[in-house]
Amino acid sequence: MTGATSRVALVTGASSGIGAATARLLAMRGMRVIVNYLRTNTAAEEVVASIQDTGGQAIAVQADVREAAAVKNMIEQVQVRWGGIDVLVHNALTPYVIKSFQDMTWEELGGKLDDEMRAAFAVTRAVLPAMTEQSWGRIIYLGTGLSHQPREGMIALGTSKAALAQFARYLAQELGPLGITVNVVEPGPVEETRMANVLDREHKQRQVDATPLGRLAHPGDVAQVVAFYASEENAFMTGTTAVVNGGMSMY
């Protein structure tokens, strides 16, 4: 495989929001895209249709990425049609609670940590054989600024994504000699996403007021950064984190 037009990209959690925007953009740039989803088949097929309507190639494949057997089945389906995965964008967001630590059970905190790392482990292990064989691969994990900047009630999400970010750095170190880059994209608040929908209008306005660029991100803003990390042009960045928050937090 030598060009972007021959690359196959798997985007987990791609039926809406950042995942859908990323799937569309990667397809626009010539990749063949697997639109992974958990429950919303109709939404996933709409993403596929929008890609095909503009001349791109995409398929929707259902899988719970927390389950190794389901991920293995998904990869096998793709292999029959397109071969191995060249680009992994792990965007799927597993459930989490919004509450204080003192009101939280271990099952709520530990369960989120387990789901987060189990999913990352399963999808990464599944795509590595093809990447290793060809000495080329791109892995991008979607994190969150809450890993660095705590916010009330978000301890489960922030802690689990902090673990994911460190996991990515270890992988970057180990997989670099094999020609595989591993990077993290950390959005701030993003419009049109599940996280944005839990915030009231007043809270959103406070976030806009704290953002030098004067608005919250759109899914397409994040997709642009993911697409760079996924591209041929990203030949010498690995183990890095791209913060996409309009300057809300600077670190």
TrEMBL record:
Protein's UniProt keywords contain Acyltransferase: no
Keyword vocabulary terms for this entry: Oxidoreductase
Entry coiled-coil feature ranges: none
MF (Gene Ontology): oxidoreductase activity
Annotated organism of origin: Tengunoibacter tsumagoiensis
Name of this chain's protein: Short-chain dehydrogenase
One Pfam family per UniProt: adh_short_C2
Similarity annotation: Belongs to the short-chain dehydrogenases/reductases (SDR) family.
